[in-house]
Hints:
The structure is a single chain. It is globular and about 60 Å long. Residues 343-349 have low confidence and may be disordered. It starts with a helix and ends in a 15-residue tail after the last helix. It is mainly alpha-helical. The chain has helices at residues 4-13, 18-32, 48-69, 73-91, 98-120, 131-155, 159-179, 185-208, 216-239, 249-269, 273-292, 299-316, 318-327, 331-334.
Amino acid sequence: MYSETDLQSAVAAGAITPEAADALRSHISALRNAPLADEEQFRLITSFNDIFVSIAAILFLVGCAWAGGSFAPWLGAALVTISAWGMAEFFTARRRMALPSILLLMAFVGGSFATTLLILIPQGYVDGSNRTGMALAALSAAISAGSAWLHWRRFHVPITIAAGVGAITGVGLSLLAAALPVFDSHILYPALLIAGLLIFGFAMYWDLSDRDRKTRRADVAFWLHLLAAPMIVHPIFAMLGITRGDASPAVAALVLAIYLALGAVALVIDRRALMVSALAYVLAAMGTLFREFGAVSLNVAITALLIGSALLLLSAFWHNVRAYLVALLPEGMQSRLPPAANLIPQPAS
């Protein structure tokens, strides 16, 4: 299986012509009865070797953390950071392996954060009321964001931008906790929601720059959407009380309405992350509704059947429903969104 990145690399290397690459894309689109841009592709594994190397890398990194941590906690984290970069030089820069590259990037950025935090705060734990500790945590997150930037400059793994943005979000939240005398859920949830919306806007910036999703920019946008979705969804439903399990039927109905709105947004921008992130909350809300109507023993089964059926139908008719919604938008917006199934110009006979 070859990704868009591989196809672009083959064109750049002169292995195939741009015309041949476009012909291949058109052929795959015709087979699937949908444009490739509408498939939301991303590469995770290319063969079982990706899984094999990933397992070996995880074992090696765990060994580094354990061995170094037996002398000093920060040393274990530092060994993980150094080892992750060293392995990336081969498996990412030379072999271009997707899953190992993702794991090594996370180990490098996470290791840089842990190393700095354990040097500044040896016990490795920061209480939310410890304003000095939260300021030091912000410094550690800033260093991990810088590490993500260095990793991006060297390897250009698409998830790196999301890792760096996540680290920057950690800087902002830590500084907010350090600045305020009280930092509880009443402040945390709105702050998370605002950060999620900003990240969503940043993801759309990458998405709109590649509406056909033929370059690495679309992969970067995918991971940014995956980061933004839970940061948008969780605060909304947490503030409605869904996470406490005490939602009333009115709140449960509101959750369903919000999910439908999120689904419409997901369809228009052709990104499924919002719907997946909100799924657990919708299941809880549906369960509450059925429980209130007396279906106590079967509420889980009925909820799973209804939600599962709805999602399967949406998956089967995703392109048709999306094409209908996109057609309702102004032409200026349509021209910037990924092409919908029935909006593809047909070649002249």
